[in-house]
Amino acid sequence: MRINLTLNRLSKKYSVAKILFSFFLLLFLPLLACSPKAAPAASRPKQQNKPTPQRPATNQPIDTIRWTSPANPKPPIGPGTERPGKPAGGFGDTYTVGLLLPFLTNQGTGNTVPDKSTLALQFYAGAKIALEELSKTEQINLVVDVYDTQINDADFLQLMSNPRLAKADVFIGPVRNSHVEAFANWTKQNRKILISPETPTSELTAQNPDFIQINPSLRAHCETITRFVRERHRPDAVTLVCKEKEADRLPYFQNANAAYPAGGAFTELIVPDATANFDKIDLKKYLKPGRTSVFILPTWASQDFVMAFLRKLKETKGAAKVEVYGMPQWENFEGIEPEYLTSLNVHISSASYVNYTAQEVKDFQQKFYESTGTLPDEDAFNGYDVTFFLGKMLSRYGLSFPENLDREAFQGLHGAFRFSRIFTAGNLDDGRNQPDYLENTFVHILKFDKYGFVPVD
User: Could you tell me if 386 and 325 lie in one domain?
Assistant: First the structure.
């Protein structure tokens, strides 16, 4: 396996800050400026005079990884067979992948880099580890061009004018909603596959069956909570709690509940937006004697609002059994005492969960540390999972993999991928028509247990 970089190979024993700085430093050296082709693996000649620093064009790839299979791969055992959906050309084809991330190289000054670059650097480092592992297991060739999307729309639109983009087969990224929406239109027009790795916003595109959303939408979270609750409780035991400005989220729960044959709608408790506490709200009438009462709060903007509800419910419930379901952001709330989370049986939905006791997670952490000198965060795990998943799908189906995703299951290090065909504007899936896009709808249900949130068995 060879990985040749146009600009820089991530050096071992470097901290994230130093890795980031190496990107910015190299971007100002014209000798290493953004070439669309991978540089051959060779020692650098000595230079008599240092060239005058200058910034390369912002719409060029900041890095190119060329990943090739061994020159003489071990032949497979048994007769060769074509896998379903593989485009003409067999398994020796080369696929070009565009990786679009906000490195924010135009904001680096001296030895400092913007904090907002961390997402891109972590994701990128995780993706490189995935490529290295895929090269040992999959007989395909990949060329990965890495682009800096910057942060504002004007810079991104300039990047979209780069003719190099048209040579890519598949794209991972961008991240920002406005960038994703604009680029989804471009990939739709140019018949490219786009994997959106970060944004959970739904319906950013339509009539675009090659658009793949990795991060589950709010609707997927609400439907998962509803399914989990309805498998254990009758609907008359469930109360939806939110502020007036959040009431547009309640139909996700009610529509999912309506799919069950019996029971009726969930009760709704909608309070004024200015509500700071629940002192004047009687929660007793929402409790079910002799049964578990369930409260679902699709809110995340105010920790104080959530804490006020939990405090009031704990004061009111007495010996009654209750369960509370909230959103992923609750895991990062500070100041909520564990006693409230345990006594009220608090659950949350989450698109990801990393089991740090698993050996494969420990192995990834070690590889990441050896490459960067720091530990991976969730963006690094996501970069690894998305890239490894893409390599597997290209190996199995070639460029026809999007049409096969609804029957594929993938377990990554920080979550699972289960794809659904999404239809907007009320269109229905009859099994034959094209979806508007594909979305990973797998969502964990986590319950607070002593020291943190863990998946419910």
Answer: no
